[in-house]
């Protein structure tokens, strides 16, 4: 099967300045790819180039024909002057049946929120409602831009576990931008480290040991990576009983 | 029936109220209150230019409103805030319009009619124009409704669903120019902004979905229009400002009753 997205040598503009230069990028069906990088490194610009929201000034970006994208943007804010129930939000831009809406809310962990006003939801609830909306597209590619911003540690751990189980059910590809390296790397097939260009990319292990990556993130994240590795190494020899699953919390 | 000027005025105010109330929801949701005001003020320049070149005032108003709205949405950039750009363009257009009017020799124009409306002078052709504008605006908004809402919610979500938010913005800009053209005879250039904002704001505390807000805002706009004409005929007050006062009264009532019912449930 062909790649969902294939970008060759693209330069992406954010405002008047280029946010990304000469980036090659692809994502295959069913893959989990994580994009990491410091602030202003062009992570969001890459996602916006894929949706068509950001201008590509050179190079080429191809989307597979009929590609369906489910998008959970960063820091989505809905103006309180716009009255909107969660169910109505899920019916945009395509009208959906109440059954479909309930199913999507349930699989995103946002049961019984359909009649609630978006403005009254907590950060965690809103994030799950936005995820439910993305799922209704039956996406080939699910794009998540720092989806756990504003969630606490257990909340974001629960969110990532949900993403993993969703991928097992739907087998969609996932492109995720994150700063929580230890959580993200655990589930990724590939990691791309950005800093205006592609610093390094490859499997989590390769990227974590790449000198470019260490130069960008320094020793502070070494600790975080070590933590992930410890958990990962730990759970395998001892079997599932020795896992330390975090309680799934409602962030209300 | 249409021969009675009060009936014509009431029908004109009804159509204008519906159109402005409906579109006003988007103006409120997208925080375009100043934008609506600025576009309406610029219409005076349109009137002046139309007189200078001997074309119909409507062409001038539509043309300048459209150019103004397009300029505003493209110029608003990084170095100057939206409000500053609006201030510069809107007041320049208004001032330039007034200057051009004063320079026109041999043409006498009743400026206050354009600034504050002259609804009692609405003729059958004006009425036809107002109602076709109203129908056009309603059809435009209903046709694009889902896309307009998505683009209003978040341009990023719109792009991901293959909707170009810039195109939807253009549709709203076009609708705004149409509303200005429809409303200028009814409430005048200075008060069009109020007719956009007040009905939508009055509806907001009572509604839970965008559809009910649009319907209620259109209803409040219609009620203000007809009620304003009735009161102005009874009390012999200027029609345009009376319509706005009725809308403001409804706004106060919905605000107060909403807060009272909230207090009761505490």
TrEMBL record, chain A:
What GO biological process terms does the UniProt entry carry, in alphabetical order? response to zinc ion; zinc ion transport
Here the segments flagged for biased composition (Basic and acidic residues) are 234-252
Region (Disordered) spans which residues? Answer: 231-252
GO MF terms listed in the record are: ATP binding; ATP hydrolysis activity
Q: Which UniProt keywords apply?
A: ATP-binding, Cell membrane, Ion transport, Membrane, Nucleotide-binding, Translocase, Transport, Zinc, Zinc transport
Name of one Pfam family that matches: ABC_tran
Any idea where the ABC transporter domain is?
Answer: 5-220
| PANTHER family, per database record | METAL TRANSPORT SYSTEM ATP-BINDING PROTEIN TM_0124-RELATED, ZINC IMPORT ATP-BINDING PROTEIN ZNUC
Give the protein name, as stated in the record: Metal ABC transporter ATP-binding protein
* Taxonomy of the source species: Bacteria, Pseudomonadati, Pseudomonadota, Alphaproteobacteria, Rhodobacterales
UniProtKB/TrEMBL annotation, chain B:
| Transmembrane spans | 6-29, 41-72, 84-107, 127-145, 170-200, 212-233, 239-257
Q: Looking at the keywords, is Zinc present?
A: yes
Q: Where in the cell is it found?
A: Cell membrane
Question: Is Ion transport among the key words of this record?
Answer: yes
Which InterPro entries does the entry mention? Answer: ABC_BtuC-like, ABC_TroCD
Coiled-coil ranges per UniProt: none
What are the recorded Gene Ontology BP terms? response to zinc ion; transmembrane transport; zinc ion transport
Cellular compartments per GO CC:
ATP-binding cassette (ABC) transporter complex
Bilayer topology: Multi-pass membrane protein
Its main localization is membrane
Q: Which SUPFAM superfamilies match?
A: ABC transporter involved in vitamin B12 uptake, BtuC (SSF81345)
Q: Which domain of life is it from?
A: Bacteria
What keywords is this UniProt entry annotated with?
Answer: Cell membrane, Ion transport, Membrane, Transmembrane, Transmembrane helix, Transport, Zinc, Zinc transport
| Family, per entry | Belongs to the ABC-3 integral membrane protein family.
Q: Relate the protein's function as given in its record.
A: Involved in the high-affinity zinc uptake transport system.
| Listed name of the protein | High-affinity zinc uptake system membrane protein ZnuB
């Amino acid at each position: 099967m062909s790649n969902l997205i294939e970008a060759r040598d693209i330069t992406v503009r954010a405002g008047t300045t280029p946010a990304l230069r000469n980036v090659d990028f692809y994502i295959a069906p069913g893959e989990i790819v994580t994009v990491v990088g410091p602030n202003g490194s062009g992570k969001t610009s890459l996602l916006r180039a894929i949706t068509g929201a950001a201008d590509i000034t050179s190079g080429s970006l191809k989307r597979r024909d009929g590609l369906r994208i489910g998008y959970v943007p960063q820091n989505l804010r809905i103006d309180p002057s716009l009255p909107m129930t969660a169910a109505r939000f899920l019916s945009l831009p395509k009208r959906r049946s109440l059954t479909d809406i309930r199913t999507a809310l349930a699989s995103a962990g946002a049961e019984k929120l359909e009649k609630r006003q978006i403005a009254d939801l907590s950060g965690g609830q809103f994030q799950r409602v936005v995820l439910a909306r993305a799922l209704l597209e039956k996406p080939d590619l699910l794009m998540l831009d720092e989806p756990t911003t504003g969630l606490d540690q257990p909340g974001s751990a629960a969110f990532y576990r949900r993403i993993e189980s969703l991928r097992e059910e739907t087998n969609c590809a996932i492109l995720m931008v994150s700063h929580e390296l230890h959580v993200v790397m655990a589930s990724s097939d590939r990691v791309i480290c950005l800093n205006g260009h592609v610093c390094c990319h490859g499997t989590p292990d390769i990227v974590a040991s790449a000198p470019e990556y260490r130069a960008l993130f320094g020793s502070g994240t070494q600790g975080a990576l070590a933590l992930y590795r410890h958990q990962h190494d730990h759970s395998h020899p001892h079997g599932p009983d020795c896992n330390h699953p975090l309680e799934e919390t409602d962030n209300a | 029936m249409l021969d009675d000027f009060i009936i014509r005025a009431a029908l004109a105010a009804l159509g204008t109220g519906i159109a402005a109330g409906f579109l006003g929801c988007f103006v409120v949701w997208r925080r375009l209150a100043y934008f609506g005001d600025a576009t309406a003020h610029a219409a005076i320049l349109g009137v002046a230019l139309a007189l200078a070149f001997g074309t119909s005032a409507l062409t001038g108003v539509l043309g300048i409103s459209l150019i103004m709205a397009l300029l505003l949405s493209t110029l608003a950039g990084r170095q100057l805030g939206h409000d500053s750009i609006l201030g510069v363009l809107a007041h320049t257009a208004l001032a330039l319009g007034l200057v051009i009017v004063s320079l026109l020799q041999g043409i006498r124009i009743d400026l206050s009619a354009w600034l504050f409306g002259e609804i009692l002078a609405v003729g059958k052709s004006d009425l036809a124009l107002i109602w076709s504008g109203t129908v056009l605006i309603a059809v435009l908004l209903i046709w694009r409704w889902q896309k307009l809402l998505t683009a209003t919610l978040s341009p990023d979500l719109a792009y991901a669903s293959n909707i170009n938010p810039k195109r939807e913005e253009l549709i709203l800009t076009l609708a705004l120019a149409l509303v200005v053209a429809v409303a200028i005879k009814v409430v005048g250039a200075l008060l069009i902004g109020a007719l956009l904002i007040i009905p939508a704001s009055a509806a907001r505390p009572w509604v839970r979905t965008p559809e009910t807000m649009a319907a209620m805002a259109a209803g409040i706009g219609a009620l203000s229009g007809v009620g304003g004409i009735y009161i102005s005929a009874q009390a012999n007050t200027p029609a345009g400002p009376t319509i706005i006062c009725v809308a403001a009264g409804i706004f106060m009532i919905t605000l107060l009753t909403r807060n009272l019912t909230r207090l009761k449930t505490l």
